[in-house]
Request: fold
Amino acid sequence: MSHPQAAEPPAAPPPAADGLTPLLEGTVDCVRRETLAERVARGEPLRVKWGIDPSAPDIHLGHTVPMRLLRRWQRLGHRPVIIIGDVTARIGDPSGRSATRPQLTPAAVEANARTYLDQLFCVLEPAGVEVRRQSEWFEGFDLQQMLQLASAVTVAQLLQREDFAQRLREQRPIGLHELFYPLLQGYDSIATTADVELGGTDQLFNLLLGRELQAAAGQPPQVIVTVPLLVGLDGHRKMSKSLANAVGVQAPAAEQFGQLMSLPDEQIGPYLALVTDVAPERRRAILAGMAAGTLNPRDAKAEMARAVVTAFHGDAAARHAEAEFTQVHRAHQRPTALPVAAVLAGGPQDLRRLLVAAGLAGSLGEAARLVRQGGVRLDEVRVDDWRIPVAPSPGTVLQVGPRRFVELASADPAALAPGVERT
RNA sequence: GGGCGGGUACCGAAGUGGUCAAACGGGGCUGACUGUAGAUCAGCAGGCGUACGCCUACAGGGGUUCGAAUCCUCUCCCGCCCA
Reply:
């Protein structure tokens, strides 16, 4: 990553003589704070733009950092203008990436865009939100308009962007289409007459370019507000679906809880600040407790995880997820509900084939390896030789590793043993 | 159009005729330990066959050779320099 952003909770903002604290608390940069202060002082409801590319099916926790800020503005009387980047998603935002992204097909983008609409309102309140798609204005864009847009900036200007500059330096490819990304995003601000645009700190370049394009189009340039980037579960890189370090807002409660528990301890503070509503005093108490050694980081992390899961699934589901987690990972017991695999033939079977059929191994070789390494259990009893066929009865629990469980059932539906619970 | 350097497993990257199913790092997985799916330590890691073995794989095609990721050739793709 070219510019890893420590997602430290930002320092307390300066005393808010201009009354902007409620709008800017927890943010990183604000470009043209004076402009913002004036307009807010006049009581103007502002059009606050935030864009998201439907480049993956799920919105994740990282997206919710700007979304939560947007919600705050919304509650203070401003209008969220959400841009679904159904055109830029086909380019793939190269921000902060060191490689060209694969381009998505329009159909894939469309499918993702649909799922986003629901997910947005996991955080935002629907009333008064303006949701727009880029295709509304780019569908009819002609070459003339494209060239005119492109003439507003220079190549040198675009190449200042750190990820482009870095790739150029390292002699790695930069697709010409990628240079258009900031232009398109900037044009969105013109099309929606944005007064303010929010984004992660990695978006600063794009956001600033939006100001220039607006000015060139005769519009007052938008105010820019950036928020810290949320570090992913690996504890180092920005949360991103493609880095497989993301927590989906629609993931099941148990999965979210477990993923959050795998977060490195140093990120507990940033997560509390960025993706929970835990009060600042409580946050400080938690961090102080960990520093003093009086609070087990595991418990602090569990509190954070519970707060996050509660926001998406409610209190009961969050408590249940925590209880299950404790049961499986601390007490090393099976979870209360298990997936059922109808794979039993009724006689002795090759354990490897059972594992593959139950979806616990990808190949016979992998299955053999899991058994050899001692990772396979039948009803809690380790089985370490796959060459001896096994004949488990329906209801037996097949386990791989510490956290993958499957309840075995007969492959023949007619022979389903009575009393076997199907889920 | 010319010159040069590249394309290796999920990712990055070694290897430049046999001992290569391919070093090393990351990611993944298993075990031990534990405060968790965290940290640390150990190990595993193409597919099929219950050892020996076979098949597929080092951008793609063709070739040389007893034998090729490695040599030749054509094609495709990427980067740099020159035009």
Observations:
- Chain A is about 45% helix and 10% strand.
- The first strand of chain A starts at residue 30 and ends at 31.
- Chain A has three domains: 21-232, 253-330, 340-415.
